[in-house]
Amino acid sequence: MKPQKIEKKAKKKIGIALLLALIIALITFYFTKEITYTLIAGIAVTVLLIIYLFMKEKLKESDRIQKMEEVFPDFIELVSSNLRAGMTIDKAILFSSRREFYPLDQEIVALGKEIITGKEITRSLSSLAERIKSEKITKTINIIITGIKAGGNVAVLLEETAKNMRERQFVEKKAASNVLMYVIFIAFAVGVGAPALFALSTVLVSVLSKILSSLPAVDTTAQFAFTLTKVNISVNFVTAISLLSLSFSTLLASMLMGLVQKGEEKAGLKYAPPLLLCALIIYFIIRLSLAGYFSQLIG
To answer: Is the pLDDT of residue 231 over 60?
Structure first.
């Protein structure tokens, strides 16, 4: 991609992030009528979006590596078949390049060219591992290099390695399906449960403040086991704390979902924006609904 297109795309993302932060700030100001809380909410959302945009490129690279890991067993098995058919190692690698192996096909072509130009196969495979930057593929290539140096049958070695990689991928997918309920529970707790509780607390503070302000003054000289005459927490403060808590809890929850599902915290950052949007929508809907219900109830 050209630098001008990259710069234009980055500016567009920053503009969208600032626009979303402005919308959240305006919503906060509509409910709180306080500049301080509005600035806090706007800054918090901006920071979260900047973190998300910063990590998005890393997520793309991680997805690219994951795609190569998924097709790598097919690639080395195809190389093994070509070797059994009587091809040399360089031709076996070049003829194993397929479009369905994207983005691994580009690395396969580069590997084949290095071998054709006279570079030692073990060094070429090491260079391939360095370019891909995948721990799984690096370990597999190291096994292949060890087998080549030991003088073993490369075709058999590649076939067995492909079989072991597929078995490992099957176990990982099975483990991911087993923890799916945990991911759903985390998403529900942060995206639905937490906004509902925060909305309820905000409305309760508002209702209690109205009820207590309408009560007659209490004789302070009288002895009571328990008295409640005033709520010292303002509605604006509760609203600001709710928005901040929802913002950071969705970020942490998305990272936890990535850790549980993929084994990497950064893999879950893609869930942060939709989770935050869902939490905010539910928060304001429940808040408005409860506020209207209690206003009719207490007059």
So the answer is: no
Report helix, strand or coil for 85.
coil
Please state, in angstroms and rounded to a whole number, the distance separating the CA atoms of residues 141 and 104: 14
Residue-averaged pLDDT of the chain = 77
Q: What is the DSSP letter of 217?
A: P
DSSP secondary structure code for residue 179 in this structure:
T
Name which of 57, 59, 60, 108 is nearest 82 in CA terms.
108
| Predicted pLDDT of residue 3 | 46
pLDDT at 171 over 50: yes
C-alpha distance from residue 206 to each of 57, 137, 212 (Å) = 43, 58, 10
pLDDT in tens, 31-79: 667 777 677 777 777 777 777 677 777 777 777 888 888 888 888 888 8
Look at residues 9, 50, 29 and name the one whose alpha carbon lies nearest to residue 251.
Answer: 50
Q: Percent helix, strand and coil across the chain, each rounded to 5?
A: 85, 0, 15
The burial class, CB within 10 Å (0-12 / 13-18 / 19+), for 234 is middle
The runs of H, that is alpha helices, within 215-271 are 235-262
| Alpha-carbon gap, residue 33 to 27, rounded angstroms | 10
Buried b (16+ CB within 10 A) or exposed e, 104-117: bbebbeebbebbee
Higher pLDDT, 95 or 295: 95
Q: Would you state the structure tokens that stand for residue 85, as one six-digit string?
A: 């058919």
Q: Judge whether 104 and 91 are in contact, CB under 8 Å.
A: no
